[in-house]
Design goal:
Length: 295
């Protein structure tokens, strides 16, 4: 797994460009239950909106919260629209989020998701945030965690955006392994109903509103291969009781195919793009999908 993670870091390292911001990144401790010792850095813009939205942005393998801050456009967009960004960091050696253990794949089961939801709840209290405007987005390992978080805590998040991820539960292991090659290589294929049942099983008995989902994947992804994209679509359309037939298809720019499934799920397929797909402008698309571009 370490070799894979290092390769991922190299891939992602060429995508992002540093950004300048007026406000600064601040580390916060003692934010609540945190069984896996995650770290938290917070970006609060100088002009924060009244009852601001809160965006949780988990990083890719071998990355960190400060890497996500420097390498993506979310803080710049926060300056523009007044929302707060939470940048968590894994402290275990491989710097990958736990999206594989039985503890992580159920609500309040333990491990990283418990610490992540503590961060969100802390931020809502600290900044008088709007609990109806809480979102999560990540790249690779962070995208996988995005899917896990919206499954575990559908009552916390209004929407998620996963950039090059896999379905919730796909990376599950029962032998202590932190890497699932079958999933990574796109060989775990299930029906929409099966994937939907996996997501629903993270919070048994929950019958409330489910988060909207935006899914991104490159057709040439050689780390988390492209079949995972279709499996994600199957999962979240089923969670929303939708068919896998899109209600609309368009092409926002060259080599992009966007399919919408009602107003709950949208997928963006990027032709001939590899795993390093977080390019300029994509963060804005996620922020617009969330509705964070409206104060």
């Amino acid at each position: 797994m370490l070799r894979t993670a290092l390769a991922l870091a190299v891939l992602l390292g060429v995508v992002v460009t540093p950004q300048a911001s007026a406000a600064s990144l601040v580390e916060v401790t003692n934010f609540g239950p945190n069984p896996s010792n995650l770290r938290l850095h917070v970006y609060k813009p100088d002009r924060v909106a009244a009852r601001p939205g809160v965006l949780l942005a988990p990083h890719y393998c071998t990355g960190s919260g400060p890497d996500m801050f420097r390498g993506t456009e979310f803080a710049k967009l926060a300056d523009q629209y007044g929302f707060v960004v939470l940048y968590p960091s894994v402290t275990r050696a491989d710097k990958c989020f736990d999206v594989y253990s039985p503890q992580a794949l159920r609500r309040d089961g333990g491990s990283d998701p418990v610490g992540l939801v503590s961060m969100v709840r802390w931020a809502l209290r600290q900044y008088q945030g709007d609990p109806a405007r809480v979102y999560v987005t990540g790249i690779s390992s962070g995208a996988m965690m995005t899917n896990v978080m919206v499954a575990n805590y559908p009552d916390v998040f209004d929407a998620g955006a996963a950039f090059a991820g896999v379905p919730d539960g796909c990376f599950a292991t029962n032998n202590g392994s932190t890497w699932n090659s079958e999933c990574a290589n796109g060989r775990i294929l299930k029906t929409p109903q099966q994937w939907g049942d996996i997501a629903r099983s993270a919070f048994p008995g929950y019958n409330g509103k489910r988060p909207r989902m935006q899914l991104w994947h490159g057709t040439a992804d050689d780390i988390l291969r492209y079949p995972n994209f279709g499996e994600e679509v199957d999962q979240w359309t089923n969670v929303h009781r939708l068919t896998t037939t899109p209600t609309s298809t368009d092409y926002p720019q060259a080599n992009w195919t966007r399919r919408k499934y009602g107003d709950k799920v949208e997928s963006i397929s990027l032709q001939n793009v590899g795993h390093n797909l977080m390019a300029s402008g994509m963060a804005l698309r996620a922020v617009q999908f969330f509705g964070l571009d409206r104060r």
